[in-house]
Specification:
Number of strands: 5
Largest sheet: 3 strands, antiparallel
Helix content: 25-40%
Number of helices: 6
CATH architecture of the largest domain: 2-Layer Sandwich
CATH superfamily of the largest domain: Ribosomal protein L11/L12, N-terminal domain
CATH class of the largest domain: Alpha Beta
Order of helices and strands: HEHHEEHEHHE
Shape: elongated
Oligomer: single chain
Strand content: 15-25%
Length: 155
């Protein structure tokens, strides 16, 4: 239960904005500018901070970002790692998954690929307390729905 002081010092939230922005490539133009502009937030400050936080990733890596806009025109944001589907497509070397998953196999990945993706996803705020095995099972399920077969070793 929150104390009265905590309740009084909380900033009222105006909106939660979810965007996908290339790593190190945030610019005040679309999609960032209009999304932040409608809440009168400083898009230049966001771009500088976002680009600094994502400089360790390869350019053009799609990063999911959740921005919390407060009524005093300030904001906070959380950067998440790229999606599992993006990692699977990169590991499998395909542009897209199968058009008929379960019938047509688009490509294959190894369990080692799945493990490496799981290690990266474990750093996400929502996955940090999940066991690695559970994350791996989730990734294998995603691969199956994309028509990507998971094998022990590539032939």
């Amino acid at each position: 239960m929150a104390t009265l002081k905590e309740i009084l010092t909380r900033r009222p939230v105006m909106a939660t904005i979810k965007l996908t922005v290339p790593a190190g490539g945030a610019r005040p133009g679309p999609p960032v500018g209009p999304a932040l502009g409608q809440y009168k937030l400083n898009s230049m400050a966001f771009c500088k901070d976002f680009n600094a936080r994502t400089q360790k990733f390869k350019p053009d890596t799609p990063m999911a970002v959740q921005i919390t806009a407060f009524k005093d025109n300030t904001f906070e944001f959380v950067v998440k790692s790229p999606s599992v589907t993006w990692y699977l497509k990169k590991a499998a070397g395909v542009e897209s998954g199968s058009s008929r998953p379960g019938h047509v196999v688009a490509s294959t990945v190894t369990l080692k690929h799945v493990y490496e993706i799981a290690k990266v996803k474990q750093s996400d705020p929502f996955c940090q307390f999940m066991p690695l095995e559970s994350i791996c099972k989730s990734i294998i399920g995603t691969a199956n729905t994309m028509g990507i077969k998971v094998v022990k070793e590539l032939e």
